[in-house]
Protein: Fe2OG dioxygenase domain-containing protein
Amino acid sequence: MEVERVQAVASALMTAETIPADFIRPEQERPAITTYQGPAPDIPTIDLSLPDRESVVRAVAQACEEWGIFQVVNHGIPTELISRLQAAGKHFFDLPQEEKEAYAKPPGSQSIEGYGTRVSKEVNGKRMWNDHLFHKVWPPSSVNYRFWPTNPPNYREVNEEYTKYMREVADKLFLCLSLGLGLEETAVKEAIGGEELEYNLKINYYPPCPRPDLALGVAAHTDLSTITILVPNDVPGLQVLKDGRWIDAKYIPNALIVHVGDQIEILSNGRYKAVLHRSTVNKEKARMSWPVFLEPPEEWVVGPLPQLLSPESPPKYKAKKFKDYMYCKLNKLPQ
Structure:
């Protein structure tokens, strides 16, 4: 299976100076060539606990307009819970291969849920240096525990507790996004699914790579989601494109990284920008991250909010069902 191949490549080639050709990125994508080495601004960091709500809203809106990404601190998720989440995920990826395979995505499944590697090559035939586990965590009606590991034994407990706090953080962020657009507090959340909004957790695992100068964990992309809320481990690797330059995201312990996804860019009629980002890999250490993708139900129609449109500001995007948008993007068809 493809996952076994990546694991075998990672372990067998740790001391080698080459990697298989289908993992080597074109020169214009190689981190060693394209990562900006000069002084660069840091991704905005926002303290969600500040009592002055107006200043928090302003900071979030500015970050979404200028960067499409920001980090939040004092977000209310306990530090020890984040540590337990990370420990549970690491425990799973440290298991023997056959134990992890018990959670593999079934052959022919159209679902994204399950354990594995990227299942298909990109259009250019290249592969990405990563491994992952993907499953829904909210709402309860969409959760399939078939893909939740039972080892470690506390995996379910930790992830359900994390999801409870994550939903509170998300509601704060949606409120800020709404007010930042000059709308009612609930406008953005209601426009992307309200209480039907789906929370999809992914654990990314990037094994040590003998040639991190040639490979990528994930190639440049924007997220399909409304927003993505991510916690990383302490191994650097997230890069964002800012003013035509690939810059490294600074690691801040226990901060959450918030990505603006495609659906918020569409909904805001382009005022908030979906961030183009990618993941690099490390020669000595495994990098891990825990993104939660907040997505509308498949049948939900997302388009520019009518409140933001006028003769001077016509719609820049088509309104369409999320499942249709997703199909077009994943198959590289025009939207």
